[in-house]
Amino acid sequence: MGKYIRNLAIKKKLLLILFCSSFSAVTVAGLFLVLLEISEFKKTTQEELTAMATLIGNRSTAALMFDDEQVARENLSVLNKFPSVRLACIYDVQQKIFTSVDTDPAKKSLCPSLSDNSKTNYQRNQLYIFQPIILEQDRLGLVFIHADLAAAFLRKLQHLGLVSVILFSASIVAFLILTPLLGLIASPIKKIVNTVQKIAEEKNYSLRAEKINNDELGVLVDAFNDMIGRVETQNTALTKAKDRYLMLFDDNPTMVFNVDLEGWIGTVNKFGAKQLGLTVEELQTCCIFNFVHPEDLLSIQSLFKQCKAHPNKVQKQEVRLICQDGHLIWVRQTARLMENENQQTNILLVCENVTETRRLAEKIAYQASHDALTNLANRSEFDLHINRSLETAHSDGAEHALCYLDLDQFKVVNDTSGHIAGDELLRQLGTLLRKHIRKEDLLARLGGDEFGILMHNCSLDHAFSACEKIRNVIGDFNFAWEDRCFTVGVSIGISAIASTSGNAGELLKEADAACYAAKDKGRNRVHVFRPDDEDLAQRHGEMQWVEKIHQGLNENRFSLYGQIIIPVSGDEEGLHFETLIRYQDSKGNIIPPGAFLPAAERYNQAPALDRWVIETLFSWMAKQPDFVNDLKQCSINLSGLSFSDETMLKFITKQFNRWFIPPEKVCFEITETAAIANLSDAATFIQELKKHGCRFSLDDFGSGLSSFAYLKSLPVDYIKIDGQFVKDILEDKVDLAMVRSINEVGHVMQKKTIAEFVENKEILAVLNQLGVDYAQGYGIGKPVPLVELKQAVLVD
Amino acid sequence: MLFFRTRLIGLALLLCAHSLFAAASVEHKIKAAYLYNFTKFVTWPELHSETFNLCLLGENSFGSLLDSLESRTALGLPIKLIRLRRFNASKHCHILYLGSATTEDTRQLIASSGILTVSEKNQFAKHIGMIGFVVREGKIKLQININRLKQSGLEVSAKLLEIAEIVERNGDG
Predict the structure, then answer these.
(1) Which of B159, B160, B165 is the best mutation test for A, with the most CBs of A within 10 A?
(2) Are A377 and A371 in contact (CB under 8 A)?
(3) Residue B69 near chain A (CB below 8 Å)
(4) Which of A112, A478, A557, A655 is the most exposed place for a label (fewest CB within 10 A)?
(5) ipTM > 0.90?
(6) What is the pTM of this model?
(7) CATH homologous superfamily for A375-540?
């Protein structure tokens, strides 16, 4: 109650005070009035009635003394005028009832019997008066009056009630008159309060309280406005600062969390919430661990432990977070222990989204370890696995097999249908191979048309049979490309990875050597490396040639040979030969090009070798003017790769100009397959050099099984008939017919024909009958160093 | 009648000892008491005597009923009973009770002032004296001749007049 009053509005309090004071004044006054009135009334009534009793007694002395009851009663009946008197009696000297008057006979009141101590008294609004009748000291009797004052009191109270009503009405009127005056105090205060409330609600500190009077409230308003002014200034500054920092926090391109030691999120910036796909509010009921990838849970928990153990140290870590929509992001977390505003220890967690970096790194790592074309593992990845296998072989004595696969006739596909077809074939073969190896085995593309298979926990015998299966699968595979169908073979070399094996490089060399051996035996077969094959591997391993060619060019290990070409008719036309290249190894052995040219073609070293040949030959000839004078034609082999080398034409032109070699004495030999593969390049190349006067010949014609139609688009001067047809011309009528038809077609197209592999005079005689223009082969002259060319002619 | 008796006995007790009236009739006892009571309501002009003299003239039936009055006082003076055969003015009677046997000569004496004359004779108040005892409805009542009272210089209290029958004043009074 007291609290309720204390919380009342000032105006109501004032009203209450006013009301209470007037009410209490009226009440107290009323009460006093009532008490006073009642006691006064009692007193007066008693006095009156006592006086009346005395009077009646006095008047009745004679009646008493002379026993005249009637007179006495008449005297008593005066009391009838008093409405309150109920009963009046006169007693004689012997206290016997002398006479009585009953104003209300219905009540049948009886005069009481007297005792010596009967005295005037009040009993509950009843007044009993006992007044003795005394005459000259003699007591003659007594007058008794019983008055009932209840009705009188009631009347009195009614009267007082009316007075009270008037008093209260007066109070209310006064109250009503005063109430508006309270507004003088209450309304300015109310206005200030309203302003304060409005400021509090709207947070609008530009509002001001209205000053009404110059009293204390006016001073208060001034002071208040002054204060709010200061608050406004400071609030604006604070708000700006807060917004600035909030923007810095929310728009920070990192996710900033404030989490407790159990991982529950206290604060998170908007950027962070957006990254996770939730709102800030939703996140504030979440645990950061709920978003961590299950595999990273242990590491983030250990990060928290580290933070707790080293409060001043910044901890870093990369983990995966799972966003609300389920997608995964990589973040770099930086965490540090800190105290929040409530002095609780929290962890400040800053997460930078490194998903892109991570993805890029993964892509780079994938690309670094995979072949882009086939999506198989690449060479370096393969090496890595070989090393791992080696480790297990060394530690556990496990036995693995390393297989080296080299496709046969792949070059044909590449040359005749283009690189796109070759690439597609490689892709399909990759898929095919993958289907036919065990899960635990690793398939890799090692180079152009080379694949490697690492067979884990596999004996050599098992590896051999597995490779035989693979060979069959590849042999049975038909590759269709633009209405054409190709089949390819594969040569496979196997080496064992055992506890005695050396390093990965050696193992690869062994497998490569075995593969080469398989090729050497006639291709499309499987060969297992044996340690006693080592010499062969040393000489022929294609893998080694890459480095050897590079070194050989620098160390001048290559040399030029020539093989005489003569007219079949026996006419004397001057010196005509084909330039050949030889490699001289460290032991002085001369190695023919069949050993290294495939490697040079495969590893793109062929153009470099071509340049070397041209430059070396031209510079040599420039020093031999006689030789040049005697020369009718010298031919130089060009690799198919050289057509596509845009700098080759310039190089050749430059060499002609540098060494003053007559172009018409130089003939470039290109293979049929290479020319067809890059038909437009080849045609452009040929036409360009022919402008200078150079000659061209199409090498190995017939081996590519291509159409004669190509000849039309290739403006060559010579056709070299493939030696495969020539060497058996004496026994094989089909070969004879082939040579004949090639020769005839060549002549029809006004091209000279040259037969290769002419091993004896019988063959030369047949060629003469057929009308072939030129012949070349061991039967005419073996390849010899250039200087020995003039003496090399066997015929004649 | 029982009521009457008890009432009278009450009055007798007021005046004197019960034993005194044992032999007297109730009526005389009351009258004896009334005689004394008159001293309370009547004022005499001057009391030159040392006693309040209650004179009984002639034969009366009070007997010794009034003797006890002599131990009492009236108007501050001791009461003295004086029994007279004949009226004697020198006796300074304040109240003079005329017995039944009294003769006409009383007229004269009654005319003398300052004496309250009382009697139970018939028509006494009207024709001769001032206060006469009469019986009404079994009760003893007073008849007062106010003219005579005033003429004799006595003053009577209105209270007494109130309870008494006022006898009409006569021309001779």
Answers:
(1) B159
(2) yes
(3) no
(4) A478
(5) no
(6) 0.40
(7) Reverse transcriptase/Diguanylate cyclase domain (3.30.70.270)
